Amino acid sequence: MEYVIKAVKLTKRFGDFTATNEITFEVAKGEIFGFLGANGAGKTTAMRMLCGLSMPSSGVATVAGFDVYKETEEIKKNIGYMSQRFSLYEDLTVQENIRFFGGIYGLTNRDIKIKSEELLEQLGLKNEAKKLVASLPLGWKQKLSFSVAVLHHPKVVFLDEPTGGVDPVTRRQFWDLIYEASARGITVFVTTHYMDEAEYCNRISIMVDGKIEALDTPENLKNQFKANSMDQVFYELARGAKRGD
Ligand SMILES: Nc1ncnc2c1ncn2[C@@H]1O[C@H](COP(=O)(O)OP(=O)(O)OP(=O)(O)O)[C@@H](O)[C@H]1O
């Protein structure tokens, strides 16, 4: 098995407070790995360390084979990233966004042109190419934002609550794109609060107060907790949490 993310006892402390506490896990190539936890559980902190944006306090981790302490620039070149907060430029057109991010990711003009046509076709956005992103519905923005994050075929794409604010049908469409990326060998690391999305993952980890308290396939977790739904599994684990709202 080829592992694209490996973390052993990865920890981040802010002063006396341990935000992420000795988390250990591996994610295989092409796997869709769900990273769940209540508000404040430590998900964003963990994700920032894995993206090479924040130095761990202790533990070890590699992403795409690169060390999160020493090889952060290589990590950044080999990953894609999408979050609700940072995604597309609203005041640029669809096509301009694709061109801009293609450039940032170091694609040649020729590649950008080819990829851009493929992407517009795949998303059914050909007629919208010259429209401002601001004018698109949220679900379309999210799909475009994801497609842009995998434009350079990264080894891993990190998605931080990528589908906030849209209905289950639109989320399902978004997940079709995730499955395609995974089928092309791109590893997907995704945080979410939606339990329908959790069910779509190959494996899920659930964090409580900085620690990973459960990690398995949705099916096995439901069996383990004698639960009918992921909602119930999540509730069983998260109700003991001290952090959060
Ligand atoms: N720079 C920082 N300094 C001090 N404390 C921090 C810092 N960043 C995060 N924390 C704390 O670490 C804990 C975990 O935060 P984190 O953002 O990782 O949680 P999360 O699981 O991503 O939550 P959410 O779902 O709300 O985004 C929180 O209690 C937060 O207040």
Characteristic key phrases:
single chain; 245 residues; alpha/beta; Rossmann fold; six-stranded mixed β-sheet; globular; binds adenosine-5'-triphosphate; AAA+_ATPase; ATP-binding; nucleotide-binding
Outline of the structure:
This protein is α/β, with parallel strands linked by helices. It has helices spanning 43-50, 72-78, 94-104, 109-123, 138-149, 168-183, 195-200, 218-224, 230-238; strands spanning 3-14, 17-28, 32-37, 58-63, 66-67, 79-83, 156-160, 187-191, 203-208, 211-216.
Please characterize this protein's 3D structure:
- This protein has a domain at 3-85 and 154-239: 3-Layer(aba) Sandwich (Rossmann fold), CATH 3.40.50.300.
- A 6-stranded mixed sheet has the order 6-7-8-3-9-10, sandwiched between helices.
- The mean pLDDT is 93.
- Helix 6 links the parallel strand 7 (156-160) and strand 8.
- Helix 3 (94-104) packs across helix 4 (109-123) and helix 5 packs parallel to helix 6 (168-183).
- It has helices at 43-50, 72-78, 94-104, 109-123, 138-149, 168-183, 195-200, 218-224, 230-238; strands at residues 3-14, 17-28, 32-37, 58-63, 66-67, 79-83, 156-160, 187-191, 203-208, 211-216.
- The protein starts with a strand and ends in a 7-residue tail after the last helix.
- It has 245 residues and is of the alpha/beta class.
- Bound molecules: adenosine-5'-triphosphate (ATP).
- Adenosine-5'-triphosphate (ATP) binds at residues 14, 17, 19, 37, 39-45, 243.
- InterPro entries: AAA+_ATPase (IPR003593), ABC_transporter-like_ATP-bd (IPR003439), P-loop_NTPase (IPR027417).
